Amino acid sequence: MSLLEVQDLAVSFVTRNGTNTAVDGISFGVELGKITAIIGESGSGKSVACYSLLGLVPMPPGRIDGGRALFEGRDLLQLGESELRKIRGRDIAMIFQDPMTCLNPYMTIGKQLMEPLLYHHKVTGEVARARALELLEEVGIRDPESTIDNFPHQFSGGMRQRVMIAMALINEPKLLIADEPTTALDVTIQAQILKLIAELQHKRDIGVIFISHDLAVVADIADQIVVMKQGKIVETGNREGIFHNAQHPYTKKLLAAIPTDSKQARPGTVEPLIRVQNLCTWFEQGKGKEPVKAVNNVSFDINRGEVLGLVGESGSGKSTIGRSILRLVHVTSGQVMFDGTDVTALHGGELKHMRRRMQMIFQDPFASLNPRMTVYDTLAEPLLLHGIEDRKSVAQGVLKLMDDVGLARAFVRKYPHEFSGGQRQRIAIGRALATRPEFIVADEPVSALDVTIQAQILDLMQQLGREYGLTMLFVSHDLAVVRHLADRILVLYKGEVVEQGTGTELFESPQQAYTQRLLQSIPGRSLHA
Amino acid sequence: MTTQTISDIAQAEQGTSLWKDAWLRLRKNHLAVFGLVLLVLFVIIAVLTPWIAPYSYQAQNLELGASPPSAAHWLGTDIFGRDLMTQIMYGGRISLAVGFVATAVALLIGVTWGAVAGYVGGRADAVMMRLVDILYALPFMIFIVLLTVVFGRNMLLLFLAIGAVEWLTMARIMRGQVQSLRQQEFVEAAISLGLSPATLIRRHLVPNALGPIIVYTTLTIPNVMLLEAFLSFLGLGIQPPQTSWGLLISYGAETMEEFPWLLIFPGVALTLTLFSLNFLGDGLRDALDVRGAKD
Description:
The structure holds two protein chains of two kinds. Chain A is of the alpha/beta class. Chain A has 20 helices and 20 strands. Chain A has three domains: 4-91 and 174-256, 3-Layer(aba) Sandwich (Rossmann fold); 106-172, no CATH class; 272-527, 3-Layer(aba) Sandwich (Rossmann fold), CATH 3.40.50. Chain A has helices at 46-53, 81-87, 99-102, 109-121, 125-138, 144-147, 157-169, 187-204, 215-218, 239-244, 249-256, 318-325, 348-357, 375-385, 394-404, 421-434, 451-468, 479-485, 503-508, 513-520; strands at 4-15, 18-30, 35-39, 62-71, 74-75, 92-95, 175-179, 207-212, 224-229, 232-238, 272-283, 292-303, 307-311, 333-338, 341-342, 358-361, 439-443, 471-476, 488-493, 496-502. In chain A, helix 14 crosses helix 15 (394-404). The longest helix of chain A has 18 residues, at 187-204. The mean pLDDT of chain B is 83. The A-B interface holds A 16, 323, 326, 328, 351-353, 355-356, 358-360, 362-364, 367-374, 376-377, 380-382, 385-386, 395-396, 398-399, 409, 412-413, 415, 417, 428, 431, 435 and B 5, 8-9, 11-13, 16-18, 21, 184-186, 188-196, 203-204, 207-208, 288, 290-291, 293-294.
C-alpha cells in the first residue's frame, strides 16, 4: 500500500480577477522507501499541490476544490488545523529552497533543532540535545559538539541546508517533502545534498517527494517521476521510462532542454579583442583586516567573435571578473586591454565611449530592469544616450530591438512586472544590444529561469551573437550550459584560474582535481554515461 | 514601410512617461481627485481673495463685537467685529503659501541632498550626513530666533527657515531609499550604459524612491502650517493685523467657551486641507507605483 495516495486533488486561487486553477485534478502516490519527483516549471502547481496537503496554502485566496489525500489511511484534506499540526513536522516534514530564510537568524541551530522534538514528544532538554547532535553527525556536519550552538549565518549555504534536513528528520517522519532543496546551491554542494537525501531516504526507508524544475537534478535519485504542466499531470513513470521512453511531447521538450553537447570549436582568426593581464580585484574589509581577494592575478585573452565560458562556484570571483572588465567595480591592479586600450585607465568621456562598446546581461531579470520604466523607456535610453537614434527615429529603433529579441511589439508600453522571467531577460538582452556593443558579459543569464525557458534564451543569445558578431564572456556555475555555448572554458577557484581549454578537452580529460570534482557534480550524468 | 509598422511606431511613441501613466491612474481614484479639486479650489480662492473677500481686511465694527454667524457675516465676527470669513480667506493665503513653499524648499533640498549622499557614498556621504545630524541637534527655536535677529522679520525668511528644518528628515529618507536601490542590478546596468551620475539619479533612482517621499511630503505640509502658527503665537512669525489659519485657531482656542465659531471655522478650513492632502498623497503614491496598477 502507498504511504500517500493523492486522488483528483484540485486547488484554485480566488482573486479579484477571477478564479485561477492552480492544481487541476492530479493523482499520484508515494511509497515507503521510494523517491517520487514532481517536475514542472514555475506556475505548474507542483509546490501548491504539496503545500495544500499540509494545509500550508493560505485560504483564502486558496481553495481546495476536491480530491482526497490518503496518508496512512487518513484523508489529510479533511483534517482540522489542530490535527494537521500534529502531523506536520512529526509524520510529514518539509525542506525548503532557501535554507537562510527558513532558519531563524536569532536562534542557535541547536535550539531550532530541538524545538520540534520538545514540542511533539515532550522529552527533556538533555535527551533532545543528544538527539540533535546525533542527527547533525548523520547529515554530515563536522564536529557537531562545537557547532551546535552556532547561529545560522555562521554556516555556509550547503551546511545550512544540511541543518534544515536534520531538522526535518528529527522527529522520524515517514514522509519528507523537499521543495527545490538544491536550487540555491552550487553544483558541487548540490551533488552532496542530493547524495545525502538519497542515502537518508534509503537508510530510514521513508517516502520522499522531491519537487524540482530541473529533470537533470532528479535523474540520479528519483524512483518515480511525475511531470506537471499548468496544474495537470502530463506524464508519470519510473526513471527509466521517463528518461529513455518519454511519451508526452512536453516531457520530451524538458529532456531536450538539458544541454548535453559540446560546442564545436570555432575555426578562424585568433585575434584577441580583450587581454586581461594580472587582474587583481580586492575588496577592503576595513582597517587591520586582510582584503578579500575576489580576483587574484588572473590573465586570459578573449578572441574576437569568441564565447569564453567562465565557471566556478559562488565566491570563486567569476562575476567579479566580468564586473572588473566593465569597470563596475574598482580594479586593484592589473590591466584590461580592450582592442588596444587599457580600460582600467579611462575616465569621463572616453569611458562613456568605451561603455558603449561593452555591455552586460545580468542574472536576475527581476532586479536588472528599472521597475518604473516601460519597455520603451528602457530600450530608448541607450539609443538616445549614445546618439544611435534621434528623437524621431527612436521608436523605430526600439521596435527593431524588440523584434530582434523576440518580444511582441504590443508589449512596448508595459512595465517589467507584467512580464515573465524569460520575457524580462529578453528585454535585458535588448537593452544590452541597443548600443551595438562588440563585447558582452553575460553573468549567469539563465540561472534564474525555468529549464525550457533557459534553452530558448540560450538559443536567442547564440543567434544574436552571430547576427551582431559579438564576443562574449559567459559566466555561469552550470557546466552543462557553458559547455553548450562556449568555445573555450576557464575554470576558476578562489579567485584564480585553475584550468582552461575547449569544452571537449575539459569534459573528456580534465587535468586538475578541482575540475574533475566539478564535472562529477553535474546532475544527470547517469543519463549519458 | 508597411502601415502595420507605422501604427506600431505611433503606438510606441505616444505617452510612455511614468508621469502620464500615473496621471491616468490617479484620475480613476475618486478620493484623490476630490482632494485635488478641493486643494485647487482653496488655492484659487487664496489668490483671488483681495477681490472676492466680502469685507475689507481692515474693516472692523467694534460695536458689533463677537457675533455668531448671520446674514451679514456668514461665519460670524471676531471680538473686534471683523468678518471671520474675510479673516479665514486672508489667513489661507499665508497658511497655504507657507505650507507649499516651505515644503517645496524642503523637498528640493532634501531629495537632492539625500540622493547624492546615498549614491556617492563613502566619505562624501559621511560628511553630508554628519551635517544633517548637526542641524538636527541644533534647537529649532534658537535657529529661528537667530535668523530673525540677524535678518529681521519677514515672510520669505519664515518660509526658508521652516524649509531649512524640514528637509533634514526628507534627506534621511531619501538616502536610505537610494542606498538600497543602488545595490540593485538595474543601477549597474545603467552605469554600464554610460549614464552620467546626475541622469542616473534623476531617471532611475528618484522615481523609484518616490513612494515614501510623497507620503512624507503630505505629512510635512500640515506640519509646516502648524509650525507657522506656533512661531506666530510666540511672536516670531506672522504679526497682526496679518493673520493665518494657525493664528486664528490659537486665538479661537482662547475664547472657545464663549465664541466657539471662532475656533470651529478656521479649524474646518485647516482640516479640509489636511484631508485633501492625505487623499491626494495616498492616491499619488498608488498611481506612481506601477506594480499596483489594476488595469
